[in-house]
Amino acid sequence: MALSQAVGRVGRSLLSSSSSRAMSMSVKPAMNVAVTGAAGQIGYAALMRIANGELLGKDQPINLKLIEVPQGLKPLKGVMMEIQDGAFPLLNSVVGTADLSEGFGDADVCLLIGARPRGPGMERKDLMSANASIFKDQGKAINKSAKKTAKVLVVGNPANTNALVLSANAPNLDPKHIHAMTRLDQNRALGQMALKLGIGVSDIEKLCIWGNHSSTQYPDITHATAMIDGKKVRLSDVIDSKWYSETFLPTVQKRGAAIITARGASSAASAGNSAIDHVRDLFLGSGSAWQSIAVASDGSYGIPKGLVYSIPCLCPGDGKFTMVKDLKVDEYSKKMMSATAKELVEERDMVRHLL
Ligand SMILES: NC(=O)C1=CN([C@@H]2O[C@H](COP(=O)(O)OP(=O)(O)OC[C@H]3O[C@@H](n4cnc5c(N)ncnc54)[C@H](O)[C@@H]3O)[C@@H](O)[C@H]2O)C=CC1
Ligand SMILES: O=C([O-])CC(=O)C(=O)O
């Protein structure tokens, strides 16, 4: 069911005053950005920023394709009205739909947010039975309707295993282009570390997340450095190992649950922010900075091939990335990296019927 039938498309005619500004700013062809769960909390937090050019650049016109379940179309209509009221110069058109072929049609970027969030006392993998099958259907639809070059970011939990399900059902896409989001975990780790050291987050480099977006994830500081008083130091030389293992690690690993307890709902603004960070860095590049991306393992570091596992990557731009290879991995890291891989193998076993 297409919402565009109910509210009409927000197109150039409706945004004529601002679209002429977009035309004068850029002659780039518009890119198609599909967003599922567009009427949910994360969608609401991210869409205005996406429309404002924070996802793909301030010179990149976009067509937004907003996907919801049929019962989400009413609130989606309100979100579309607000987007229209934002008069975004880069926004070429907006469509709201519950039809997957329409929503993913010719998509360049798919942000897969739509899924049930967890409540207090649940682990993310408790969402498996409710959410994983969503990604089978969406994988098939993306396979059929999106561009073969589309870049897909899975946010809905359990994100890594949902991305695995999606990839198995979208054989036309290169699995390298199907990611699950662990950028929020990386951002959380940076925030906690900067707070502890009394420095800025951009003073810290090469801090990364390995494995699952779950409480078994491994936020690794063994390769990380920080600028402190104008000098570059290794984090492992200045951070107390007891604070690292007893405070920092569990704080980052369980941050999602702590936010649910505090807010009564799971992270939304920070999740939307991290999804924007992930896609922006993929398309616009982030130089020598390491970015944590959960993507099909190629077997490096002994991680079982094919598992969607977070690994540090470099993002040169244009939708490309390379994994950081040949790092020295100490015994503690090996243990942590294999514990989170083990959880992902268990999760994979739970969704065998969808692969
Ligand atoms: N990977 C990460 O770092 C994070 C992941 N999440 C996950 O993101 C997901 C969404 O969270 P919220 O936006 O807070 O939830 P929400 O409940 O506020 O919104 C979810 C939206 O998705 C829609 N939806 C459900 N099934 C759908 C489907 N098959 N197709 C299209 N839309 C569908 C719902 O109608 C709803 O509007 C949850 O699974 C949550 O656990 C949340 C925070 C961080
Ligand atoms: O914890 C949750 O359920 C939501 C989420 O993934 C996060 O905040 O990292």
UniProtKB/TrEMBL annotation:
Q: Which GO terms describe its molecular function?
A: L-malate dehydrogenase (NAD+) activity
Occurrences of domain Lactate/malate dehydrogenase N-terminal (ranges): 31-176
Q: Which reaction does it catalyse?
A: (S)-malate + NAD(+) = oxaloacetate + NADH + H(+)
Whether Transcription regulation counts among this entry's keywords is no
Tagged with keyword ATP-binding: no
Query: Which SUPFAM superfamilies does the UniProt entry name for this protein?
Result: LDH C-terminal domain-like, NAD(P)-binding Rossmann-fold domains
Active site location = H213 (proton acceptor)
Task: Cite the Gene3D superfamilies for this sequence.
Answer: Lactate dehydrogenase/glycoside hydrolase, family 4, C-terminal, NAD(P)-binding Rossmann-like Domain
The UniProt record gives the binding positions of substrate as: R118, R124, N157, R188
Top-level taxon in the UniProt lineage: Eukaryota
Kindly report, in one word, the top-level EC class recorded for this enzyme: oxidoreductase
Which family is it part of? Belongs to the LDH/MDH superfamily. MDH type 2 family.
Output this protein's name.
Malate dehydrogenase
